[in-house]
Each structure stands twice: as structure tokens, then as C-alpha cells.
Amino acid sequence: MNKEYQNPALTVDAIVTRYVNSRIEAIMIKRKFNPWKGRLAFPGGFVEIGENPEDAVLRELKEEANVTGHSPTLFAVHGDPKRDPRQHIVTIFYSIIVDENVVPLGGDDAAEASWVALEKLGQEHVAGDHYEIIKKLRKEK
Prior knowledge:
Number of helices: 2
Shape: globular
Order of helices and strands: EEEEEHEEEH
CATH superfamily: Nucleoside Triphosphate Pyrophosphohydrolase
Number of strands: 8
Largest sheet: 4 strands, mixed
CATH architecture: Alpha-Beta Complex
Strand content: 35-45%
């Protein structure tokens, strides 16, 4: 019995944080393309066929921010069918460990990458539902 299934796409996003003067910072990229061109987002992208999501998040962090990380840990899963205007995309957010002195550098589809203080960011600065993650991170102080 052959059935054609329509499934959501799978993406991963890397949450890399550090504390500087008791304020939380995260590595964020500035999106080079739509949707949300010019807004900040956590580095991430699509999981490739045959790829483990934990490997994908480390690959995407390297491609978009030129940062090598390790030990991905599940932080959140977002799957609202309307969360991305392109299609139904489910994303897995992972916390990643990196050297806190690393200097991010934008690459791939990231116009820029840098450490960003999270305390004053508003929804208008951030891509899609990534602001929900920022609010969770602020509560974890």
C-alpha cells in the first residue's frame, strides 16, 4: 500500500550563552535572507537527509557563526504549523557548549554573527518565535 505523506520540515537552532557582568549574552546571527531578513536569530538551519539533529546543530553553528561547539542538550521544541511563513517547520533548540571567549563571524546565510546582550532585545529585533527562547533564557538567571 503506497501512500504519499506530507511531513513538516525539521530544523535545529543553537543556543550558546555566557554571562558577562551578570548579564546574559547569546551568539546571534543577523539573517541575510527572508523571512525575517535583518533580524536576529539563533544560528540554525535545516537537518539534511541522513543527518542526526545533534550533528546538524553543530554543523549549522559552524557554518553560520564560525564557532565550534560540543555537547548539544535539548532546550525546547517548537512546532506550531504557522511559526514559519515558508512551510510547516518543526525546530529543535539545543544548548551548546563553546569556549566563552570565541569571536563569532557571520557565514553561510548569516549576514553577521556576534555575542548579543539579551536583556533589552524586543520581539521587533528577533526572527519569528526565537523571542520565546530569549524570554526563557532571561528567566533562567
